[in-house]
Design brief:
Length: 281
């Protein structure tokens, strides 16, 4: 499957519109004064399932041909992508299996179950093999959390909205783990606002995206990283890297204390609650 284009992002925006929110952009004059710059925040914490992941999962599910859709979708996820795919599958009325590690938090399991998906528990190292088994035995379609071009195009719709909602942007920053959101953002911004820079932000404990883009070669993620930014522990994917590299995207790393302080600042200034992964920006 080819890498997505800006036309794919535009098509994704039309496809997911009935199923996702056009999330608001917020700002704080007090925070602007403290930082010495004007900052706006795209509030994807107010998106369906509470995360931008609903965009990519919904685009992937809604773009499936009827016969493939009827056989269902499968993914491996210990976080928001699983819930997002479960939501998207429920919206289309098709089966969904989410392969999750045995040690996944109960709150994550409950979120996936709440949208009606079937959960298959296994060891972390067995998740991809279990997905292949579901594909072989049931003919399901794999919707990868960040390598799937349809997912990347869907995530790019957040930046598409942002460019329509906020004038005069000079820099757009997005968190990066596997890279679906950042690559979709870079694709959209470079196509529609080439004068605007795009940066990624990741925890210091998981600095592979920074190392990859600085070296020009995809680098392995640290083994068994620990961070409050637990939504960003996944290593940068091949397709996101292929999109990010030629666009000159820079990645900065953020310490644990800075993430927590940023989350608290957003709660005080914007009155919104975000997880530490989002507070990396």
């Amino acid at each position: 499957m080819a890498l997505p284009t800006i036309e794919d992002v535009r098509l994704a925006a039309r496809r997911i519109e009935p199923y996702t929110h056009r999330t608001p952009v917020m700002s704080s004059s007090r925070l602007n004064d403290e930082l010495g710059i004007d900052v706006v925040f795209k509030c994807e914490n107010l998106q369906k399932v509470g995360a931008f992941k609903a965009r990519g999962a919904t685009n992937a599910v809604m773009s499936l041909p009827g016969e493939a859709a009827a056989r269902g979708v499968v993914t491996h996820s210990s976080g928001n992508h699983g819930a997002a795919l479960a939501y998207a599958a429920a919206s289309r009325g098709i089966p969904c299996v989410v392969v999750m590690p045995r040690d996944a938090p109960e709150i994550k399991l409950a979120a996936v179950r709440g949208y009606g998906a079937e959960i298959v528990l296994c060891e972390r190292a067995e998740r991809e093999a279990e997905c292949r088994r579901q594909i072989d035995e049931r003919g399901m379609t794999l919707i990868h959390p960040y390598e799937d071009p349809r997912v990347i195009a869907g995530q790019g719709t957040a930046a598409l909205e942002l460019l329509e909602q906020a004038a005069g942007l000079e820099l757009v920053i997005a968190p990066v783990g596997g890279g679906g959101l950042l690559s979709g953002t870079a694709l959209t911004v470079s196509s529609l606002a080439p004068g605007v820079s795009v940066w990624g932000a990741e925890p210091e404990a998981v600095d592979d995206a920074q190392r990859s883009l600085e070296s020009g070669t995809l680098q392995p993620a640290p083994e068994n990283p620990a961070s409050w930014g637990d939504g960003l522990l996944t290593g940068l994917g091949q397709n996101p890297f292929a999109i990010l590299k030629p666009r000159g995207v820079r990645v900065v790393t953020v310490g644990e204390r800075a993430m927590l302080e940023a989350a608290w600042t957003l709660a005080r200034r914007l009155k919104v609650v975000v997880e530490p992964s989002a507070a990396t920006v």
